[in-house]
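Troubleshooting entry. The earlier prediction with magnesium ion gave an output that would not parse, so I re-checked the input for stray whitespace and re-submitted. Clean input:
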Amino acid sequence: MTKKYIDLSRKIGVLGGGQLGRMLQEAALPYGVDLFFLDNDIKAPCSLFKDNFTHGSYKDFNSTIQFGKDKDILTIEIEHINADALEQLAKYDKLVIPAVDTIRMIQNKAFQKKFLMENDIPSSAFTVLDSKSIAPELANDWYPFVQKSQIDGYDGKGVVVIESAIDLSQQLNTPSILEKLVDIEKELAITIAIEQSGKTHLFPICEMVFNHKLNLVDYLIAPAGIEEKYIKKIKSISTKLAKALKSPGLFSVEFFLTKSGAILVNEIAPRAHNSAHYTIEGCNISQYEAQLRILLGLPIPEITIKGYAGMVNLIGEEKFIGAPYVENLQLLHEQGDAHLHLYGKKETKPGRKMGHITVLNASRAKLISQLKWIKESISIKS
Ligand SMILES: Nc1ncnc2c1ncn2[C@@H]1O[C@H](COP(=O)(O)OP(=O)(O)OP(=O)(O)O)[C@@H](O)[C@H]1O
Ligand SMILES: [Mg+2]
C-alpha cells in the first residue's frame, strides 16, 4: 500500500558540504525541506546555510556521531566519510542511504573492482597492490597501466598513467590498484536512482569530453552520441549493477567505450555526480530531486530529457588565486537557453571546480558549438 502521508519534517543530515550538497539543498527548497551539513571547511559551499552547517570532519568518528545523533535520515555527498560512524548511526535507527556496506565497497577501489568482477560486470583487468611501491617485475607484467590509489582519490587526483619503465618514478606511493590501460574511444556516464522500494530509474547516458591535462571533464553532452547497441548494453549493465548494489540511493557509473567496441565500467560513485549536473535544467527531474525523493521515500517519475543538454565545468584558470569573478558572463545570454551555476567558493585556484554552465538545444551540432564557445570565452579568474 502506498503511504498517504510523507513526513517532510524529518531532519536530513548530509556528510559533506560541497557543491553537491548545495545543489541538493537547492532542490529541497521547494519541498520546504532544510538539510543539515557536516564539513571541516568553514568556507565550504554549504556554509551559506549557517544555522544548518556544522563545522567538523566527516572523516572523524566522533564528529560524525555527534552530527548524526539528532538527525532522522543520513546521506552523503562525498564517499570518503567515516563508515564506522554511519554504521553506528544506523544501529541507532537512523535511516542511512546509501547502505553503509555499499559505501564501504565503493570507498576502496580495490573492493570496488572485486565487486565488479564477482558480479560479472565488465571492467578493465586489474591487480591489487597493498604495498606502497610497485616492484619493477610486477610493473613489467602490466605495462601500459593506470595506477589508482585505493582510497581518497577524486577529480583524477590519485590516478597516474604509467606507460613504461620511464614513468615508474611517477608512481603513487600508497596502497593502490593497477589497471590495464584501456584504449578509450569515449567516456560515458549514467546516473541510477534506486528508490527505497528498490524501483530503479536510469537517467540518460551522457558523454564526457575530457581535458587530458587536468584529467577533468571539459564538457559533456546528453544523450550520448553512441550507437543503439551500446545504449542497450550500458542500460543492461546498469540494471544488473543496480541489483548488485543492494541499496537505495543515487549512484553514478562511469563507463569506457573502447576502440574495439567493448563497454567497461570504470567506477561507481554513491552520490550525485558532475556528469549529471545537466539534469537540473535538462530533465523533468534533476539528479538532486531524485536523491531527495529517495531519502524522503517519495516515488520518482519516469525520467525524460528535453532535447539535448550540455554542460561545461567552470574551472579556476591557471595562475589565478583569490576571490573569483566570471570573465565574459555578460555575453552568456547570447547563448539562449544557458544557465549559470556558481558554487559560492570564496577562492579560485588553478584546476578548482568553481561552477558549471548548462545549455539546452534541440540540435546536437548547435549545442556543441555553444559549448565550445562557452569553453573558450567564459572563464574564472580573480
Ligand atoms: N584503466 C584505464 N585506462 C585508461 N584510462 C583510464 C583508466 N582508468 C582511468 N582512466 C582515466 O583517468 C580518469 C580518472 O580515473 P577515475 O575515474 O578512476 O578517477 P577519479 O579520480 O576517481 O575520478 P573522478 O574524476 O571521477 O573523481 C578517467 O576518467 C579516465 O580518463
Ligand atoms: Mg572518475
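This one parsed fine. The longest strand covers residues 184-194.
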